[in-house]
Design brief:
The chain is of the alpha/beta class and about 260 residues long. The protein has two domains: about 70 residues, Winged helix-like DNA-binding domain superfamily/Winged helix DNA-binding domain (Arc Repressor Mutant, subunit A), CATH 1.10.10.10; about 170 residues, Glucose-6-phosphate isomerase like protein, domain 1 (Rossmann fold), CATH 3.40.50. Helices cover about 55% and strands about 10% of the residues. It has a five-stranded parallel beta sheet, sandwiched between helices. A two-stranded antiparallel sheet has the order 6-7. Helix 11 links the parallel strand 3 and strand 4.
Length: about 260
């Protein structure tokens, strides 16, 4: 089981103490990978039973499985920047992104995509909105016409006046930090609007609030003191979603014609 995916799926079920524990572990992955359950409890100022309960809440059978997932975890924190050659990271990001897509229950997401009365799309930046624009074009031959929301104001208006429980909102973000649209997302959750979050693999607030989650891995590289990202993994995730939807529709229509 992928640790970051488990955290995002169950984050809303954690109490404040458990959130503090997992935040410490995420921010000190390298150190925590080698710690025993007693040592983890000591550094987080908690108890062995607290760590065990946390592991089980996240869907693991016990601390051993949790630790194994932590040791295998290749995802990065949004604050971490690789020192490797940027070009050499490409294949690793692509392979990890493909694996992340294969691990999710895509049938549930595809069914939602197919049955939604309307599909709204919002990207937290220009690059994300460009990717969603390409995704929209790819769906037109399948008679699906997503509505692109190009600004926060449009999302605010749509969330308050238009969207209903029969609709689907796709939100794409690199970091998953949705501080500026948190109120709109909360309102949509109250209205039972399904939300598909698509983010870089990390413990983030958007994924924790999403009905469904897709992840990609884009390892940042520092240039003149700023972290830069490739959008290829995000394009790959959206292409995987599109291709899977084409297969889903073919299977569905094949069953209908039998």
């Amino acid at each position: 089981m992928e640790l970051e995916s488990a955290i995002n799926r169950h984050f809303s079920q954690l109490n404040e103490n458990e959130k503090a524990i997992i935040e410490y572990i995420i921010n000190h992955k390298k150190e925590c990978k080698e710690l025993t359950i007693i040592e983890i409890a000591k550094v987080t100022l908690t108890s062995k039973s607290s760590i065990l309960r946390l592991a089980k809440k996240l869907g693991f059978s016990g601390y051993s499985e949790f630790k194994y997932s932590l040791q295998k975890d290749n995802s990065i924190n949004s604050e971490e920047v690789s020192t490797n050659n940027f070009m050499s990271m490409q294949q690793g990001d692509v392979d990890a992104t493909r694996k992340l897509f294969e691990q999710i229950n895509s049938k549930v997401v595809l069914k939602e995509l197919d049955e939604a009365e309307r599909i709204f799309c919002y990207g937290t930046g220009w690059g994300q909105r460009d990717v969603l624009s390409d995704f929209r074009r790819s769906l037109i031959p399948l008679n699906r016409y997503p509505i692109l929301l190009s600004a926060k104001k449009e999302l605010e208006m749509a969330s308050r006046q238009e969207m209903s429980e029969n609709d689907l909102l796709i939100v794409v973000s690199l970091s998953g930090d949705i501080a500026e649209i948190r109120d709109e997302i909360r309102l949509l959750k109250m209205k039972n609007v399904s939300i598909l979050s698509i983010t870089n693999i990390s413990n983030n607030s958007l994924a924790s609030m999403g009905t469904y989650n897709l992840y990609f891995q884009s390892t940042p590289k520092k240039y003149k003191g700023e972290a830069v990202y490739s959008f290829v993994p995000l394009h790959l995730t959206m292409d995987n979603l599109f291709r899977s939807y084409v297969d889903y529709k073919n299977e569905e229509e094949g069953e209908i014609h039998v």
